[in-house]
DNA sequence: GGCTTAATTCTAAATTTTTCGAAATAGAGC
DNA sequence: GCTCTATTTCGAAAAATTTAGAATTAAGCC
C-alpha cells in the first residue's frame, strides 16, 4: 500500500460526508478570496462546533486552505490538490493492462 | 440537502478507504470484461470476507458492476458513474457566483 | 449425488466517526 | 482592560465502520 493511495483515500474520505461535500462545493463555487466560516454555518444551518470539526477534516486532508481576515476565517478550495486527486482516480484507465488495445477503453470515449 | 449530494457523498465515502480505492483503481486499469474477485484478493493480500465486504460497498455505491463467469465473479468499473462524480465535484467552479468574472478562476486555467 | 473451487453472508469485537453543548481563544473597537 | 463577535477546542455519548473466522451458497465436474 503506497503512500499515495493512503493520501488519496484520506482526501476522498474527507469528501465522503454530505456536510463536508457541501462545504467543498461551496468553496469551489465561491469567491477566490474564500468563504467565511460564518457564511457556511448559516448556509448549512448546523452548530458552529460541528462545522468547525468538518472544516478541520477538510483542511487536514489538504482540500481547503484557510486565511484569517480580521475576526473571520475564510476557507477556499485547494484546486491543485483537487485536480491531482481526480486525475489519480482516472490514472491509466486507457492503458487497459499490458497489451495495447485495438479500440479505445470505455473511459476514453463514450461509455 | 439534495439527493444528489447524498449520493455523491456515499460514492466518495466508498472510495475513501485504501483497500477500496485500490480495488477501484485495479478495475479502472483492468480489462473491460472485469477483474475476478480472487485476483483482487491475491493482489491485495486480505481475507476473502474482508474483500467481499469492500466490494459490496463499492457495488452499492454504484461504482462497480459485477458479472458471474462460471464460479468466478468479475468486477468492472462503472465509468459513467465515476465520470458524473468527478464532474459534480468541479461543477460551476468557473462561474464564481452571480456576476461574470473578469479573469478565469484558478480552477479553469493554471492554479 | 458427492467433491472441489470461488465467493459471499453471518456474527461479533475493536475502532473510528459524528454530533453538539460548554468552555476557551482571537481579534476589533471603545 | 473590557466587551462583543467569530470561531475553535474540549469532552463525552451515540452511531457507524472495519475486520476476519466460521458457516453458507453457487457452479462445474466426475
Which structural traits does this protein have?
homodimer, 111 residues, alpha+beta, Arc Repressor Mutant, subunit A, 3-stranded antiparallel β-sheet, 5 helices, 13% strand, DNA-binding
Question: Secondary-structure blueprint of this entry?
Answer:
2 copies of one chain form a homodimer.
Chain A (H helix, E strand, L loop, with lengths): L2 H13 L2 H12 L5 E2 H8 L3 H13 L3 E6 L2 E6 L1 H12 L21
Antiparallel strand pairs in A: 1-3, 2-3
Helix pairs in contact in A: 2-4
Chain B binds a DNA duplex (30 and 30 nucleotides) through helix 3 and helix 4.
Oligomer: homodimer
Strand content of chain A: 5-15%
State mean pLDDT of chain A (0 to 100 scale).
89
**Global structural class of chain A:** alpha+beta
Spatial gap, N to C terminus of chain A: 30 Å
Question: Percent range for helical residues of chain A?
Answer: 40-55%
Write the element-wise H/E pattern of chain A from the N-terminal end onward: HHEHHEEH
Q: Could you state the CATH homologous superfamily of chain A? A: Winged helix-like DNA-binding domain superfamily/Winged helix DNA-binding domain
Shape of chain A: elongated
CATH first level of chain A: which class? Mainly Alpha
Largest interface: A-B, 42 and 42 residues
Task: Give the number of DSSP strands of chain A.
Answer: 3
Which strand order does the major sheet of chain A show?
1-3-2
- Main beta-sheet strand count, sense and barrel state of chain A: 3 strands, antiparallel
Number of helices of chain A: 5
The CATH architecture category of chain A equals Orthogonal Bundle
Amino acid at each position: 500500500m503506497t503512500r499515495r493511495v493512503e493520501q488519496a483515500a484520506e482526501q476522498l474520505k474527507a469528501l465522503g460526508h454530505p456536510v463536508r461535500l457541501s462545504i467543498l462545493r461551496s468553496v469551489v463555487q465561491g469567491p477566490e478570496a474564500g468563504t467565511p466560516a460564518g457564511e457556511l454555518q448559516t448556509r448549512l444551518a448546523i452548530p458552529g462546533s460541528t462545522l468547525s470539526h468538518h472544516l478541520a477534516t477538510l483542511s487536514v486532508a489538504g482540500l481547503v486552505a484557510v486565511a484569517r481576515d480580521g475576526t473571520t476565517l475564510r476557507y477556499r478550495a485547494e484546486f491543485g490538490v483537487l485536480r491531482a486527486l481526480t486525475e489519480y482516480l482516472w490514472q491509466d484507465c486507457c492503458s487497459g493492462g499490458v497489451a495495447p488495445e485495438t479500440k479505445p477503453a470505455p473511459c476514453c470515449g463514450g461509455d
